[in-house]
Each structure stands twice: as C-alpha cells, then as structure tokens.
Amino acid sequence: xxxxxxxxxxxxxxxxxxxxxxxxxxxxxxxxxxxxxxxxxxxxxxxxxxxxxxxxxxxxxxxxxxxxxxxxxxxxxxxxxxxxxxxxxxxxxxxxxxxxxxxxxxxxxxxxxxxxxxxxxxxxxxxxxxxxxxxxxxxxxxxxxxxxxxxxxxxxxxxxxxxxxxxxxxxxxxxxxxxxxxxxxxxxxxxxxx
Length: 194
Ligand code: GLN
What we know:
One of its GO terms (molecular function) is glutaminase activity. L-glutamine binds at residues 46-48, 105, 133-134. Catalyzes the hydrolysis of glutamine to glutamate and ammonia as part of the biosynthesis of pyridoxal 5'-phosphate. The resulting ammonia molecule is channeled to the active site of PdxS. The chain has one domain (2-191): Rossmann fold. A 7-stranded mixed sheet has the order 2-1-3-4-12-11-10. By secondary structure, it is of the alpha/beta class. The chain has 5 helices and 12 strands. It is globular. The mean pLDDT is 95. It binds glutamine.
C-alpha cells in the first residue's frame, strides 16, 4: 500500500519515515499525476499560505478535491490541517475547503510557540506524544466531524469520513500510532473500493 506525502514545502521526509513504520510505503508527491499511484495522501506541516499558493500554482487544489471525492483518505498535519479547512478565522481565504472545520492559525500564543505533551486520542489506547509548533486549533466543527482529541479544551485532532487532521506534528516523534491510524483508514478505504 502506497501513501503519498505532498512535497511542495514542509516536513516531508519525517512523514515518509513514519509511514514506513506502519508497513506501508511513503512516497513524495510533487506533481498531480503522481496522485494516481497512491491510495492515501498526507499534507504536512510547514507554512499554510505558502503551501496553499504552491497547491494553486501546480494544480493540486482540483486534483486533491477529486482524490478526496473518490473516498481516498487525506491526513493534514498542522499547516496541512489549515489548508484542508472550509474556513480560516480572520477572513483569510480558505484553500481546499474540504473539511467542515473552522481553524485559527498560530493559536497557542507567542510565549508557547512550541511545546510537547501527551494527548489522549480517541481510537488509540495509550496517550500519543504530540509536538506543537505555531499550531492552529479547530474552533468549530460541523455535524459530521468527530473530535478525536482536545488540549486545554481546544480541539486538536478530528476526523470527517476519509479526512483526518491534527494540529500537532505526529511525524516528529518515534510514536507512529497516528500514522498507523491513518494507514488503517487507507486500508479500509481500499478494501471497500469496487
Ligand atoms: N503556523 C503555520 C501556519 O499557519 C503552521 C505551522 C506548522 O505547520 N508547524 O501555516
């Protein structure tokens, strides 16, 4: 099973390593045609305005909408979460507008630009080690969105059907259980395909 990592900007290699630990194969995606070769896609952290601009420039907006529209799973981490959201607080234009969430960028305050913690995530037995870097939070979720984890009452992991998002960077620790969770989503989506 192959899972792509959008390789326009951001933390790509670390995701590929984490995917490898699940037994699936991770591969960088630089051109839209390469989406045909993978069954799931990770949009990594980085800088969401830059990733959004590059996605527009290289045709990924329509291509990823189509990919997700076919039921293939997409996982956005940090900036990847922001580009998947239907709405961004503060009037900035949204990018893919795929997931029914409203996000606030850089939401944890300057003095706490980055921090780590152990998070309970629904569907994973023991707490997950989470690294937050200038992280967004999910301010509002639509009726079909399942909240998977909260930190200080703020939503930081969520799922809507084949879409998964986390505010934090699961690829920056040895803990690959969120990648395993995603790989299981990809596996399940593949086995229901006609
Ligand atoms: N602060 C970044 C943004 O708003 C996201 C940071 C990250 O991906 N680590 O795009």
